[in-house]
Structures are given as structure tokens and as C-alpha cells.
Amino acid sequence: MLTETGVAGHPESYFHKPDLGNWASYLGVSRSAGMGELEYLRLLIDTAIEQGTANTGMFGLRLQRHSFDFFFRQLRILCPNEPTDKARFEAVFGRTLFVHLTRPDKLSQAVSFVKAQQSGLWHRAADGSELERLSPPADPVYDFAALKDCCDQFIQFDRDWNDWFAEQAIKPLRLSYDDLCGDPQTELKRVLTALDLPPSAADPVQPGVAKLADSINADWIKRFQDQTATGS
């Protein structure tokens, strides 16, 4: 949605997987013969900044927790003299607003994640068509252990983010998934305001995806809660 405002860059997961080759593939970058590791890393970062700015003067990046460790190891290579993660980040990307988007209902999040993994469908467009499919269609199957592991992991991710924010003396703008789904324009305007950008840029923006939750989600949630309550 930030991209659609036309004023807040083009936030994407440019550094999603812990592998420079994957970064290069995503960014469309080739490593020329004889290019050193530091020069290559700088090229990847510079290309991401160019793509993530989209001629708006504002760079946007989405960074998930599983991408965190490898990403910051690369920043330490680029900025060995900076004392903190925050200092390294801002040395590379400039003054930064950190936005923490989380989903309080971790069970619902886990159900959505496991179901997407199994079915292969991750996003559906607002018109109902498939937007992102990562594997052939398959019927999802209830799996208590997978749901519990996923739920525990998401809880830990939030703890890790909050610990890091505290360690780096960062006060992020906090967004809730539920609030974002319930009133996307209001939440988008909160972000634009925090960026000192005109909130009116959010007025014409509509969500580009449809919710995937259905009766399967509701059934899995109930079954998981029942199993947890009975210990079976």
C-alpha cells in the first residue's frame, strides 16, 4: 500500500533469504568477473536502494525476523566502525523510521502460515484471482505439531524484535495486523504522518489483496484450542 501512495518508495523484501546469490537474483544483479566481496555487497545494497526508492526520495524495506541475522552481518561488513545495528543501518540507508507490524493473534497467524505452506497459495488479489502461488495446489491437512511450532516461533520473533528495539534504543511505530485489516487507510495515514509525508496520499489507495481465511482456518483454530485444553 505504501508503494501505491506514490510518495513512500517501493518497500519489498529485497534481502529476504540469507544468501547473497538470492539477493542478486531478486534484484536482477550480476557479479562481474574480478568483483570483490565488498564491492559486490555494495552493489547489491545500492541496487536495492534504487529499486526501493522508486524515484520518490524515500527508501522502503520490509525485513522479516528470519532475515535479520544474515542481513545485519552484511551491514557489519559494510560498516565495521559503527558501534550499533541502528548506527550501521542508518549509515547505509539514512535516517530511518522503524515500523513494527505484528499480529497479536499468533494462533490465527500460524494457521494462515501452515495452510499457505500446504496449499501453495500465499496471496489472492482483491478480485479473487491468485496473486502468489509457490507450489502446485494441494488440500491442506490439519497438523497440530506444525501449528504449535509455528505459533511458538512467531511468539519468539516478536520477543526478539522487542528485545532488539530496546537494545538499540528504538521506539518503532507499532502497527497491528488486525487494525490494518480493519481500517487500512487510517493505518496507512499513520505511517505517512510519521514519515512527514502528506496523509492525503493514502486517500485513493485500496488494499490489493483479499483475505484467505475461510472455514478451514476456523476449524483448525477450534481443533487446536480443544487439543490444547484437553492435552490430547
Description:
The protein is mostly helical and 232 residues long. The chain folds into two domains: 1-96, no CATH class; 101-193 and 205-232, Rossmann fold, CATH 3.40.50.300. It contains ten helices and five strands, in the order αααααβαββαβααβα. A three-stranded antiparallel beta sheet has the order 3-2-5. Helix 2 packs parallel to helix 3 and helix 6 packs across helix 7. The longest helix has 24 residues, at 144-167. The N and C termini lie far apart (42 Å). The mean pLDDT is 95. One of its GO terms (molecular function) is transferase activity. This is Sulphotransferase Stf0 domain-containing protein. Pfam families: Sulphotransf (PF09037). Residues 2-226 form the Sulphotransferase Stf0 domain.
Explain briefly what this protein structure is.
The chain is mainly alpha-helical. It has helices at 2-5, 20-27, 37-53, 68-78, 85-93, 106-119, 144-167, 177-182, 184-194, 215-230; strands spanning 99-102, 121-125, 130-133, 173-176, 209-210. Helix 4 packs across helix 5 (85-93) and helix 6 packs across helix 7.
